[in-house]
Amino acid sequence: MRDDRESTRSGAVSVDREDDVLHLVIDRPEQRNSVSSNMIDTLVDTLTTAASDSSLRAIVLRGAGADFCSGVDWMASNDPDAPRPRTGDLVRRIPHTAHRVIELLHTIQLPVVCGVRGWAAGMGCNLALAADFTVAADDAVFWEPFVARGFSPDSGSTWLLPRLIGITRAKRMLLLGERVTATEAADWGLIDCCVPADALEETVDDLAHRLATGPTVAIGLAKQAIAFGQHATLGQSLNQELYDLELSCRTSDFKEGMRAFRERRAPEFHGR
Predict the structure, then answer these.
(1) Domains of the chain from N-terminus onward
(2) pLDDT tens digits for 126-142?
(3) Beta bridge partners of 135
Protein backbone atom coordinates (compact mmCIF):
# COMPACT_ATOMS: atom_id res chain seq x y z
CA MET A 1 0.00 0.00 0.00
CA ARG A 2 1.25 3.44 -0.89
CA ASP A 3 1.90 6.01 1.81
CA ASP A 4 0.03 8.93 0.24
CA ARG A 5 -3.48 7.81 1.14
CA GLU A 6 -6.49 9.71 2.45
CA SER A 7 -9.85 8.13 3.32
CA THR A 8 -13.27 9.50 4.24
CA ARG A 9 -16.75 8.03 4.45
CA SER A 10 -19.90 10.04 3.88
CA GLY A 11 -23.43 8.71 3.56
CA ALA A 12 -22.31 5.12 2.82
CA VAL A 13 -19.92 6.25 0.09
CA SER A 14 -16.24 5.74 0.88
CA VAL A 15 -13.81 8.18 -0.72
CA ASP A 16 -10.21 7.03 -0.70
CA ARG A 17 -7.40 8.90 -2.40
CA GLU A 18 -4.28 6.89 -3.19
CA ASP A 19 -1.64 9.18 -4.68
CA ASP A 20 -3.25 10.59 -7.83
CA VAL A 21 -6.10 8.05 -8.10
CA LEU A 22 -9.49 8.68 -6.48
CA HIS A 23 -11.26 5.51 -5.29
CA LEU A 24 -15.04 5.71 -4.76
CA VAL A 25 -16.78 2.80 -3.08
CA ILE A 26 -20.55 2.43 -2.82
CA ASP A 27 -20.47 1.10 0.70
CA ARG A 28 -23.84 -0.26 1.75
CA PRO A 29 -23.47 -4.00 1.27
CA GLU A 30 -26.32 -4.90 3.64
CA GLN A 31 -28.69 -3.29 1.10
CA ARG A 32 -26.89 -4.66 -1.99
CA ASN A 33 -25.37 -1.19 -2.30
CA SER A 34 -28.65 0.46 -3.26
CA VAL A 35 -28.06 4.21 -3.25
CA SER A 36 -29.96 6.69 -1.11
CA SER A 37 -30.47 10.36 -1.89
CA ASN A 38 -27.65 11.26 0.52
CA MET A 39 -25.29 8.86 -1.24
CA ILE A 40 -26.16 10.37 -4.61
CA ASP A 41 -25.49 13.84 -3.22
CA THR A 42 -22.08 12.64 -2.00
CA LEU A 43 -21.22 11.25 -5.42
CA VAL A 44 -22.25 14.50 -7.12
CA ASP A 45 -20.22 16.62 -4.71
CA THR A 46 -17.16 14.35 -4.87
CA LEU A 47 -17.11 14.09 -8.66
CA THR A 48 -17.70 17.83 -9.05
CA THR A 49 -14.70 18.54 -6.83
CA ALA A 50 -12.60 15.93 -8.64
CA ALA A 51 -13.36 17.54 -11.99
CA SER A 52 -11.41 20.65 -11.01
CA ASP A 53 -8.62 18.90 -9.06
CA SER A 54 -5.55 19.07 -11.31
CA SER A 55 -3.62 16.68 -9.05
CA LEU A 56 -5.92 13.74 -9.88
CA ARG A 57 -5.26 11.49 -12.87
CA ALA A 58 -7.84 8.69 -12.65
CA ILE A 59 -10.99 7.58 -10.81
CA VAL A 60 -11.97 4.06 -9.72
CA LEU A 61 -15.58 3.17 -8.85
CA ARG A 62 -16.47 -0.01 -6.96
CA GLY A 63 -19.11 -1.52 -4.70
CA ALA A 64 -18.40 -2.99 -1.27
CA GLY A 65 -19.17 -6.65 -0.66
CA ALA A 66 -20.82 -9.08 -3.06
CA ASP A 67 -22.60 -6.58 -5.33
CA PHE A 68 -21.73 -3.43 -7.23
CA CYS A 69 -25.01 -1.52 -6.94
CA SER A 70 -28.64 -2.66 -7.06
CA GLY A 71 -29.95 0.77 -8.05
CA VAL A 72 -31.77 3.51 -6.21
CA ASP A 73 -33.24 2.68 -2.82
CA TRP A 74 -36.86 3.19 -3.86
CA MET A 75 -38.21 1.86 -0.55
CA ALA A 76 -36.54 4.73 1.29
CA SER A 77 -37.48 7.19 -1.45
CA ASN A 78 -41.16 6.20 -1.23
CA ASP A 79 -41.66 6.21 2.52
CA PRO A 80 -45.47 6.36 3.01
CA ASP A 81 -44.99 8.44 6.17
CA ALA A 82 -42.91 11.08 4.40
CA PRO A 83 -44.56 14.33 3.24
CA ARG A 84 -46.00 14.04 -0.27
CA PRO A 85 -43.70 15.86 -2.73
CA ARG A 86 -44.98 18.70 -4.85
CA THR A 87 -46.10 18.02 -8.42
CA GLY A 88 -43.09 18.00 -10.73
CA ASP A 89 -40.69 16.98 -7.96
CA LEU A 90 -38.84 14.45 -10.13
CA VAL A 91 -38.42 16.90 -13.00
CA ARG A 92 -36.96 19.52 -10.67
CA ARG A 93 -34.76 17.28 -8.57
CA ILE A 94 -33.34 14.38 -10.61
CA PRO A 95 -31.34 16.45 -13.15
CA HIS A 96 -29.25 17.69 -10.20
CA THR A 97 -28.95 14.32 -8.44
CA ALA A 98 -29.05 10.88 -10.08
CA HIS A 99 -28.78 12.16 -13.64
CA ARG A 100 -25.97 14.50 -12.66
CA VAL A 101 -23.88 11.56 -11.39
CA ILE A 102 -24.17 9.81 -14.77
CA GLU A 103 -23.33 13.02 -16.60
CA LEU A 104 -20.27 13.67 -14.44
CA LEU A 105 -18.89 10.15 -14.88
CA HIS A 106 -19.34 10.39 -18.62
CA THR A 107 -17.96 13.90 -19.14
CA ILE A 108 -15.29 14.37 -16.47
CA GLN A 109 -11.86 14.82 -18.07
CA LEU A 110 -10.37 12.01 -16.03
CA PRO A 111 -10.48 8.35 -17.03
CA VAL A 112 -12.98 6.37 -14.95
CA VAL A 113 -12.53 2.64 -14.30
CA CYS A 114 -15.41 0.67 -12.80
CA GLY A 115 -15.17 -2.75 -11.15
CA VAL A 116 -18.39 -4.78 -11.00
CA ARG A 117 -19.22 -7.95 -9.12
CA GLY A 118 -22.68 -9.35 -8.39
CA TRP A 119 -25.64 -7.14 -9.28
CA ALA A 120 -25.43 -3.98 -11.37
CA ALA A 121 -29.09 -3.10 -11.66
CA GLY A 122 -31.01 0.03 -12.61
CA MET A 123 -28.98 3.09 -11.82
CA GLY A 124 -26.20 0.72 -10.73
CA CYS A 125 -26.05 -0.70 -14.24
CA ASN A 126 -25.90 2.79 -15.71
CA LEU A 127 -23.18 3.93 -13.32
CA ALA A 128 -21.07 1.06 -14.67
CA LEU A 129 -21.89 1.86 -18.29
CA ALA A 130 -21.08 5.57 -17.89
CA ALA A 131 -17.49 4.73 -16.91
CA ASP A 132 -14.76 4.70 -19.55
CA PHE A 133 -13.68 1.14 -18.73
CA THR A 134 -15.85 -1.39 -16.91
CA VAL A 135 -14.33 -4.66 -15.75
CA ALA A 136 -16.75 -7.27 -14.42
CA ALA A 137 -16.26 -10.42 -12.43
CA ASP A 138 -17.68 -13.52 -14.07
CA ASP A 139 -20.46 -13.60 -11.47
CA ALA A 140 -21.76 -10.13 -12.40
CA VAL A 141 -25.23 -9.50 -13.84
CA PHE A 142 -26.35 -6.34 -15.64
CA TRP A 143 -30.07 -5.57 -15.42
CA GLU A 144 -32.34 -2.66 -16.36
CA PRO A 145 -35.52 -3.49 -14.39
CA PHE A 146 -37.37 -0.19 -14.91
CA VAL A 147 -40.25 -1.40 -17.11
CA ALA A 148 -40.62 -4.55 -15.00
CA ARG A 149 -41.33 -2.22 -12.06
CA GLY A 150 -43.88 -0.23 -14.03
CA PHE A 151 -41.96 2.94 -14.86
CA SER A 152 -39.88 4.16 -17.77
CA PRO A 153 -36.07 3.89 -17.92
CA ASP A 154 -33.91 6.66 -16.51
CA SER A 155 -30.32 7.51 -15.42
CA GLY A 156 -29.09 7.59 -19.00
CA SER A 157 -30.01 4.02 -19.97
CA THR A 158 -31.83 5.00 -23.18
CA TRP A 159 -28.75 6.97 -24.31
CA LEU A 160 -26.00 4.62 -23.16
CA LEU A 161 -27.33 1.23 -24.22
CA PRO A 162 -28.09 1.89 -27.92
CA ARG A 163 -24.63 3.42 -28.36
CA LEU A 164 -22.87 0.53 -26.67
CA ILE A 165 -24.78 -2.50 -27.97
CA GLY A 166 -27.19 -1.26 -30.65
CA ILE A 167 -30.93 -0.63 -30.62
CA THR A 168 -32.05 -4.26 -30.86
CA ARG A 169 -30.17 -5.45 -27.78
CA ALA A 170 -30.99 -2.23 -25.95
CA LYS A 171 -34.70 -2.90 -26.46
CA ARG A 172 -34.34 -6.39 -25.07
CA MET A 173 -32.73 -5.01 -21.93
CA LEU A 174 -35.01 -1.99 -21.54
CA LEU A 175 -38.41 -3.21 -22.83
CA LEU A 176 -38.20 -6.86 -21.79
CA GLY A 177 -35.98 -6.41 -18.76
CA GLU A 178 -33.65 -9.20 -19.85
CA ARG A 179 -30.65 -9.78 -17.60
CA VAL A 180 -27.19 -9.89 -19.14
CA THR A 181 -24.33 -11.92 -17.71
CA ALA A 182 -20.81 -10.51 -17.52
CA THR A 183 -19.66 -12.87 -20.27
CA GLU A 184 -22.45 -11.72 -22.59
CA ALA A 185 -21.81 -8.08 -21.68
CA ALA A 186 -18.15 -8.40 -22.66
CA ASP A 187 -19.01 -10.23 -25.89
CA TRP A 188 -21.52 -7.52 -26.83
CA GLY A 189 -19.17 -4.63 -26.06
CA LEU A 190 -21.39 -3.46 -23.21
CA ILE A 191 -18.35 -3.57 -20.91
CA ASP A 192 -14.60 -3.69 -21.42
CA CYS A 193 -13.92 -7.22 -20.18
CA CYS A 194 -15.00 -10.08 -17.94
CA VAL A 195 -12.47 -11.69 -15.58
CA PRO A 196 -12.54 -14.38 -12.87
CA ALA A 197 -13.92 -12.98 -9.63
CA ASP A 198 -10.61 -13.39 -7.80
CA ALA A 199 -8.83 -11.32 -10.47
CA LEU A 200 -11.24 -8.36 -10.47
CA GLU A 201 -9.50 -6.07 -7.99
CA GLU A 202 -6.05 -6.53 -9.50
CA THR A 203 -7.34 -6.03 -13.03
CA VAL A 204 -9.14 -2.81 -12.10
CA ASP A 205 -6.15 -1.44 -10.20
CA ASP A 206 -3.73 -2.29 -13.00
CA LEU A 207 -5.93 -0.57 -15.56
CA ALA A 208 -6.33 2.50 -13.36
CA HIS A 209 -2.56 2.63 -12.89
CA ARG A 210 -1.97 2.48 -16.65
CA LEU A 211 -4.36 5.38 -17.15
CA ALA A 212 -3.03 7.38 -14.19
CA THR A 213 0.51 7.19 -15.53
CA GLY A 214 -0.55 8.32 -19.00
CA PRO A 215 -0.69 11.84 -20.49
CA THR A 216 -3.67 13.03 -18.45
CA VAL A 217 -4.52 16.11 -20.51
CA ALA A 218 -4.44 14.18 -23.79
CA ILE A 219 -6.54 11.39 -22.31
CA GLY A 220 -9.12 13.88 -21.07
CA LEU A 221 -9.30 15.64 -24.42
CA ALA A 222 -9.60 12.31 -26.25
CA LYS A 223 -12.44 11.25 -23.94
CA GLN A 224 -14.22 14.54 -24.61
CA ALA A 225 -13.73 14.22 -28.37
CA ILE A 226 -15.13 10.68 -28.44
CA ALA A 227 -18.27 11.87 -26.63
CA PHE A 228 -18.57 14.89 -28.93
CA GLY A 229 -18.28 12.65 -31.99
CA GLN A 230 -21.38 10.69 -30.99
CA HIS A 231 -23.60 13.57 -32.11
CA ALA A 232 -21.34 15.40 -34.59
CA THR A 233 -20.54 15.23 -38.27
CA LEU A 234 -17.13 14.12 -39.49
CA GLY A 235 -16.21 17.73 -40.22
CA GLN A 236 -17.24 18.86 -36.75
CA SER A 237 -15.24 16.04 -35.16
CA LEU A 238 -12.17 16.90 -37.23
CA ASN A 239 -12.46 20.50 -36.09
CA GLN A 240 -12.79 19.39 -32.46
CA GLU A 241 -9.70 17.21 -32.83
CA LEU A 242 -7.79 20.17 -34.24
CA TYR A 243 -8.41 22.34 -31.18
CA ASP A 244 -7.68 19.41 -28.86
CA LEU A 245 -4.39 18.84 -30.68
CA GLU A 246 -3.47 22.48 -30.23
CA LEU A 247 -4.00 22.16 -26.48
CA SER A 248 -2.30 18.79 -25.99
CA CYS A 249 0.78 19.87 -27.96
CA ARG A 250 1.36 22.59 -25.37
CA THR A 251 1.64 20.18 -22.45
CA SER A 252 4.79 18.98 -20.72
CA ASP A 253 3.66 15.41 -21.36
CA PHE A 254 3.72 16.04 -25.12
CA LYS A 255 7.32 17.27 -24.87
CA GLU A 256 8.22 14.22 -22.77
CA GLY A 257 6.54 11.92 -25.29
CA MET A 258 8.59 13.41 -28.11
CA ARG A 259 11.83 13.15 -26.10
CA ALA A 260 11.12 9.55 -25.22
CA PHE A 261 10.43 8.74 -28.88
CA ARG A 262 13.72 10.27 -29.97
CA GLU A 263 15.62 8.53 -27.18
CA ARG A 264 13.85 5.21 -27.82
CA ARG A 265 12.62 4.77 -24.25
CA ALA A 266 9.29 4.60 -22.45
CA PRO A 267 7.90 8.05 -21.60
CA GLU A 268 7.41 9.18 -18.00
CA PHE A 269 4.27 11.29 -18.02
CA HIS A 270 3.32 13.55 -15.10
CA GLY A 271 -0.16 14.62 -16.10
CA ARG A 272 0.88 18.18 -16.98
Answers:
(1) 12-80+88-213 (3.90.226.10), 216-263 (1.10.12)
(2) 999 999 999 999 999 99
(3) 115, 193
